[in-house]
Each structure stands twice: as structure tokens, then as C-alpha cells.
Design a protein that fits this description.
Elements: E1 6-10, H1 26-38, E2 43-46, H2 50-53, H3 62-77, E3 81-87, E4 90-91, E5 94-95, H4 113-130, E6 136-143, H5 161-178, E7 185-187, H6 191-194, H7 202-207, E8 212-216, H8 222-226, H9 231-234, H10 236-244, E9 255-260, H11 272-283, E10 289-294, H12 325-335, E11 346-350, H13 365-375, E12 381-384, H14 391-397, E13 401-403, E14 408-411, E15 414-417
Parallel strand pairs: 1-2, 1-10, 2-3, 3-6, 6-7, 8-9, 9-10, 11-12, 11-13
Antiparallel strand pairs: 4-5, 14-15
Helix pairs in contact: 1-3, 3-4, 4-5, 10-11, 11-12
């Protein structure tokens, strides 16, 4: 019997945002966690800010690490498990990189030997500090670190796909060295699935680490093109879950919907609960879903400047810890018993070649074909075109029919299979 789907939240503190590490207040953290636990969620994803924890390549601040452990222990007291992201990295439009990687000390994050060893030491240290805590899920290498590797970043650390893979393998090994037998993974934002020249590839996401992470944000063109109540917007998270399976070597590799939220103004506040309900319902219809971790716990305070407007209102709670309607929706989903979803027997063929992955992006032929199938009532998954005739692979996944995008013809009602 498969394990129940996990429900959690990305922990953004109610006071000070992630800058709370500079003035760490365990009583405030406990109050935050009380409200989260009251929803019936079972885990949080935690973000130590890298420059605050490792301000020098050979200095990982012991007190900062102790505070991370204190937070994990406070979560355990409230029945919450903890997953920790290491290299922050990038959060809510801000980059947090230590001075020893920038300007006068500029070095490539992914290929400079000293930078790589410094990062590995940091990840190993955080993992080891939590390794004996029963509520420690494991490490994520960092939050959307792939955004540093290519445009649209204004100052990218250029890297080839082969170099990106070597870096990921090294970072994941460091996490496992620190905490063996925990769930360690890495997380890219969606250009890994959608951008032809992004060096972090779908194969990296679906084959490296213990679980595949997907981050679903409909401000990527989906809601702009199709609207907040469209099939495309409400099923976008489920689409990424199923799209990721095409590249997995293991036929039943679990997928973690590690970030998903309701971004205003594309999803206005008065419609956020309905969007949340639809998104969660459709994601739960994906076999092999490890968990759903909503972004995020608390709104960003209006006293903090220069965030993109959408970032201020993404929380399940306001800054004074009052739950919003979306909190009640997620709490209801977490407390319900969910049936194991049926196998998805129809697969849409997707390009194996990473240089053609833009066909999977909003406006691409794969994206459009997938949602025509959904609109017509199908429950599609995906398979690489190079595996479309691999009977053993298809049988292992329960796939009985493979269709190509050009076979899914547009109709006024969505699409039909020819």
C-alpha cells in the first residue's frame, strides 16, 4: 500500500521574513509553528540563508547551525517533520550569495574547485547537525539554484549540462555523507523542463537524488495565456508531475510538488481558495505523488521593500498569523482520506532531446496537446519519444496507449485522439 501523500508548507517566518536568522527568536518561531501545526500539516520546508550561515568559505557559523537545530526541535514538538534547503541561493527575486563567491572573489559556483568544496562542506555540516533528529526528512541542495546558470539571470555562472550534473552529484553526495539514509534531492525552477538552453536538464531532475521535485507557478505564461480558471492553469501542477515522469529511469519514482502557490494578480485573492482547491485536487490524481508543499506559510510584511508585488500575499496566513481561506482549503485536503489514484494508461510522447524541451512549455505543441487531452476527459501521463516503443518500459508504468502531439487534433471542446 503506497504511503499517504504528505501535506506541508514552505516556512516563511511571520516576523522578518528569512532575515529572521539575523535576530533569531525561538518564541516567535514556535508561535508560527503552532499555527501551521493547527492546520493538520505534517511537514515544513526550511530555508537557512547561505551568506548568514557560511559568511566565509571556511567559516560555517556554529550558532547559526544550532539555531537551525532548535527550529527543527521546535517543529518536532508540534508533530512537524522538517526538510532543509541548503544553498539559498535565490528566494522571492533576491539572490543570497556569500561574498566569497562574488565581485572581487568572483568564481563560478558550479565549476570552481574551492567554491564546490566550500558548498559541499556546508551541506554536509547542515545534514550532519540534523542527522539524529527523527523528524528530519533530508536536504534539498538549494532552492532553484539552476536560475544562476543561464539567462534570464543578469550575471549567470555559465555551465554545461555535463558540469551541472557533476556538481549535482557532488552536492547530493555531501548531503548523504552528513545524513545517510535520508531523503536528499535537488530542486530546479520550471525552465529545467521548458527552456531549450537551460543546462540543468529534465534528466537531472528526474534521475538524480531520491525524489523528483517540481515547482509549479502559473505566472510562467500559463495564466496569462489561458486565465486562472482554465484547464491549463488548474492542472498545471499535475502536468509538471506527469511531465517529469517521462525522464525518470525508475518507473515509479516519487514526485514532490515542492512549491505551488496562488500568485496575485493572476489569481486574485478572492479566487485563491478555488484555485488552491482545484490545483490540489488535480495533483492528488497523479500516481506516485510524494507530497504537496504549499508556498508559503506567512505573507511578506509590507514593511519590507522591493519585493515583486505578488510575493507579499502568497501566505496561508497574514503576518498576524490569521489563517486565510487557502489555509482552510489546504487543511481540509490534509485531513481527508485520499484514494490511491488509478494508473494513467495514456501517454503523450515528448521530445527526448533537451534542446527541444520548449515544446513542453506554455504555447508549445506538447503543452497544448496534453491539455487538449485533459479537456476531453483523458488522464494522460508522458513518455519520451525514444521510449514510445519500449514495451517493457511501458508495461512497467502501466501505459497501454502512446499518442503524439500531432495526433491530438484541436476541436472546439479540447482535443480528440485520432
Amino acid at each position: 500500500m503506497p504511503a499517504a501523500v504528505r501535506f506541508g508548507v514552505n516556512y516563511t517566518p511571520s516576523e522578518g521574513w528569512f532575515h529572521h536568522w539575523l535576530d533569531f527568536d525561538l518564541d516567535s518561531v514556535r508561535a508560527d509553528l503552532d499555527a501551521i501545526a493547527a492546520l493538520g500539516l505534517d511537514h515544513i520546508r526550511v530555508f537557512p540563508l547561505w551568506p548568514y550561515f557560511q559568511p566565509n568559505r571556511t567559516l560555517i557559523r556554529p550558532r547559526a547551525v544550532e539555531q537551525l537545530v532548535d527550529l527543527a526541535d521546535a517543529a518536532a514538538e508540534r508533530g512537524l517533520d522538517v526538510s532543509v534547503d541548503g544553498l539559498q541561493g535565490h528566494l522571492s527575486s533576491f539572490d543570497f550569495l556569500p561574498a566569497w563567491t562574488r565581485t572581487w572573489h568572483r568564481r563560478n559556483l558550479f565549476t570552481d574547485p574551492e567554491a564546490v568544496e566550500g558548498q559541499a562542506a556546508y551541506l554536509r555540516t547542515l545534514a550532519a547537525a540534523l542527522a539524529d533528529r527523527p523528524n528530519f526528512i533530508g536536504m534539498t541542495v538549494g532552492n532553484e539554484v539552476n536560475q544562476f546558470a543561464a539567462a534570464p539571470h543578469p550575471d549567470p555562472d555559465r555551465v554545461t549540462p555535463q558540469e551541472a550534473e557533476r556538481w549535482l552529484v557532488r552536492m547530493l553526495a555531501a548531503c548523504a555523507d552528513g545524513a545517510p539514509d535520508r531523503l536528499h534531492l535537488h530542486a530546479s525552477y520550471d525552465v529545467a523542463w521548458y527552456q531549450d538552453d537551460q543546462p540543468f536538464t529534465p534528466g537531472h531532475s528526474a534521475r538524480l537524488g531520491d525524489v523528483t521535485a517540481v515547482h509549479s507557478w502559473v505566472f510562467n505564461g500559463t495564466a496569462q495565456r489561458h486565465g486562472r480558471t482554465s484547464v491549463q492553469a488548474e492542472h498545471h501542477a499535475a502536468y509538471l508531475v506527469e511531465l517529469s515522469k517521462a525522464w525518470a529511469d525508475a518507473p515509479h519514482r516519487p514526485v514532490w510538488l515542492q512549491e505551488v502557490g496562488a500568485p496575485a494578480p493572476l489569481v486574485p485573492a478572492e479566487h485563491a481558495a478555488a484555485f488552491t482547491e482545484a490545483t490540489v485536487t488535480h495533483a492528488l490524481d497523479c500516481p506516485g505523488l510524494w507530497g504537496i508543499t504549499w508556498w508559503c506559510s506567512y505573507d511578506v510584511s509590507r514593511e519590507l521593500a522591493d519585493f515583486p508585488e505578488l510575493e507579499y500575499g502568497l501566505g496561508l496566513f497574514t503576518n498576524d498569523r490569521a489563517p486565510k481561506d487557502i489555509a482552510r482549503v489546504l487543511a481540509g485536503a490534509a485531513r481527508r482520506t485520499h484514494e490511491t489514484p488509478a494508473v494513467r494508461t495514456t501517454a503523450l510522447a515528448v521530445p527526448d532531446e533537451p534542446a527541444r524541451r520548449s515544446r513542453c512549455a506554455p504555447g508549445g505543441s506538447v503543452f497544448d496537446a496534453y491539455f487538449r487531452l485533459v479537456a476531453d476527459g483523458a488522464r494522460p501521463t508522458t513518455v519520451l519519444d525514444s521510449r514510445a516503443d519500449d514495451k517493457d518500459h511501458l508495461a512497467a508504468r502501466g501505459i497501454t496507449e502512446v499518442v503524439t502531439p500531432d495526433q491530438v487534433l484541436p476541436t472546439p471542446h479540447g482535443g480528440t485522439r485520432s
